[in-house]
Amino acid sequence: MKAIVIDKFGGPEVLLQREVATPKIGPGEVLIRLLAAGVNRFDVTTRRGEIPYAAVSFPHVPGVEGAGTVAEVGSGVTAFQIGDRVVPVLTISRGVCRHNPCYCQLGWDNICRDFDKLGLTSWGTYAEYVKASEHNVVHLPRSLSFTDAATSMVATATAWELAISRAHLRQGETALVNAVGGAVGSAAVQIARLAGARVIASAGSHNKLELARQLGADEVINYKCQDLETEVLNLTDGRGVDVVIE
């Protein structure tokens, strides 16, 4: 298969297109034919060698986000069939680990101490194919394109973790979303609105704030020309907000 490979850490010049062996799957695994791949900051820091906890071995195929269709399923796989539209998940786990508490069973795979991540410690999505455990693949609804799915998976999951899993944002509460111009901030605005919250968004440019309004922000603050604390208190009658998403 064709893939983008790095043989050493460095700048963009270390990214090389090369023919490599298509991954072979084992029991419980799925082979995905990728039709789109995202470019995430994880990919940049991995290429530079700036993630100390990710033991990258060379040659390495980066890429933490992608979407495609199932090309092959291993023995024991029951949730997927060839041709299914799917997305591989960044955090690689098997649903259970040797630790107590077992964060995998609690649904907190992202903080599992048996750490493994797609595109960091295993080959990623800068390729025609990628393999993943059945546990680390999700179905992609037809209402979402491969491109949109491949470029939003990590940011949306992060925003959900912050707003819903950790902050338990509820209907009627007020959320302040800072740095709304970024991927996580943009996703957080939409998730907060879906949760029924009032959303105040902050950013440092008019264009980013206009985007925040289009995504559902009720109020916006330009922190470069307005005092953030003063404006938040004014907008909430001195009460402040229930949740801050940074």
From TrEMBL:
User: How is this protein named in the record?
Assistant: Enoyl reductase (ER) domain-containing protein
Q: Does the keyword Electron transport apply?
A: no
Mind listing the UniProt keywords for this protein, alphabetically?
A: NADP
GO MF assignments = oxidoreductase activity
Q: Which Gene3D superfamilies match?
A: Medium-chain alcohol dehydrogenases, catalytic domain
Q: Provide the Enoyl reductase (ER) domain boundaries.
A: 10-246
Instruction: Cite the SUPFAM superfamilies for this sequence.
Output: GroES-like, NAD(P)-binding Rossmann-fold domains
Q: Tell me yes or no: is Transferase among this UniProt entry's keywords.
A: no
